[in-house]
Amino acid sequence: MKEKLADEPGARCFFDIYFIRDQFLAFLYYGAASLSICAASLIGGGVIGAVLCLMHFSRLKTLNAVAGVLVGAVRALPELVLIFWLYSCLPLITGVTLNALSTGLISLSLFAAAYLSEIFRAGLLAIGIGQREAGYSLGLSRLMVLRLIILPQATKIMIGPLLNFMCDLIKASTLLSALSIHEMSFYASSLGAETYKYLEIYTMVGAIYFVVIFAMSSAAKRYLARRELVLAS
Predict the structure, then answer these.
(1) pTM for this structure?
(2) 80 with 204: CB under 8 angstroms?
(3) How many helices (H) and strands (E) in the chain?
(4) Domain spanning 2-232: which CATH class is it, in words?
(5) 226 exposed, middle or buried (CB, 10 Å; 0-12, 13-18, 19+)?
(6) Of 1, 16, 77, 117, which is least packed with CB atoms within 10 Å of its CB?
(7) In the chain, what are the domain boundaries?
């Protein structure tokens, strides 16, 4: 009778280390799937974000306004609302139905684009106007000044904020489990419903996310600290 009660949900109070050992590789696999989704979203968001950034710098006020509205709207919306709006409402407006994975990738790409466009813009604005004027005085075109003078310096400024944003993107990717996308959070939820080993499952999930995000945050802090030392010297 005691053994039966011990197997019932809520009756367990011990930590099953052997369960973690058996499921560790599976969690690493789904963790890699989560990182792959984040990487694809970061690439897509980077492209869209670069376009929005260029629209911000455009001399056409219409492009400036459109970019401002798009970035402001996406940043103002909770990520989960954006995900469900694209999944449930967009087909009603356009007649185009997206599968769960496509919706997740587009949602995270838009989320990334809104924030990356601001990171790009801040990096470019951080370079003084004197740098541009020096390039023009040497006879360089606007594109050459951007490629040879502005971007190399701006990229160094963007690296720290970019690493910090990647941490936020990884955390936001857990919301894709609401669409039953097979990433680590969804696997954890499904496995928990089957085994009721929530203590082991979410401890393992938390540990994996902690290691990845803490490593990236530490790398960003070290990079910013090293850059401040270089600028101070």
Answers:
(1) 0.85
(2) no
(3) 11, 0
(4) mainly alpha
(5) exposed
(6) 1
(7) 2-232
